[in-house]
Design brief:
152 residues, Thiol Ester Dehydrase, Chain A, 3 helices, globular
C-alpha cells in the first residue's frame, strides 16, 4: 500500500479527488488501497433516502444497475487520482465504454456496497478498470469500464 494514503479515506477527501457531488457522488469512503497492485476497495452505504429510489420501482426499491457501474467507475477514478498524483490532478476522467456488465442480485436499501476495482491497463490517456460490487461478500454486479482523461 502507498504509505501516503491514510485509511479510511473519507468523503471529504474523495470530493477533493473527483469532481462528483450529491446526488451523483456514489462512493462514501475508501477502505483499502494498493497502489502497486493498482487496486482499491470503496464503500457505498445504500439508504432509502437516495433520490433514485423515489422513481425507480416505487414500493420495491432497487438500486439501478447503471448507478452500481457508475460507483465502480468513481472508485476507479479515486484510484487513478491516488496513483497518478499530480499528473492526474488537472484531468477529468469520463466513462466511455462498459463491457461484460453482469448483474447477479438486486441491491436494496440497507445494503453496504463494497466496490472492488483494479486498473487492468493504461493506454495513453485512458484506463481500463475491472470492478466487482459486493454485498456481504457476494458479487452483485461486475463490469469492465474504459475511462478517458482530458484536461479541464
Amino acid at each position: 500500500m502507498n504509505e501516503t494514503v491514510t485509511l479510511p479515506v473519507d468523503v471529504r477527501t474523495i470530493q477533493s479527488l473527483i469532481p462528483h457531488r450529491y446526488p451523483f457522488l456514489l462512493v462514501d469512503r475508501i477502505v483499502e488501497v494498493d497502489i502497486e497492485a493498482k487496486r482499491i476497495v470503496g464503500v457505498k452505504n445504500v439508504t432509502f433516502n437516495e433520490p433514485f429510489f423515489q422513481g425507480h420501482f416505487p414500493g420495491a426499491p432497487i438500486m439501478p444497475g447503471v448507478l452500481i457501474i457508475e460507483a465502480l467507475a468513481q472508485a476507479g477514478g479515486v484510484l487513478t487520482q491516488l496513483s497518478l498524483g499530480r499528473d492526474a490532478q488537472s484531468k477529468l476522467f469520463y466513462m466511455v465504454k462498459v463491457d461484460n456488465a453482469r448483474f447477479n442480485r438486486q441491491v436494496v436499501p440497507g445494503d453496504v456496497l463494497e466496490l472492488h476495482v483494479q486498473i487492468k491497463r493504461v493506454i495513453r490517456n485512458m484506463a481500463v478498470y475491472y470492478g466487482e460490487a459486493k454485498v456481504g461478500g457476494e458479487i452483485v454486479a461486475s463490469a469492465e469500464v474504459l475511462c478517458a482523461g482530458t484536461r479541464e
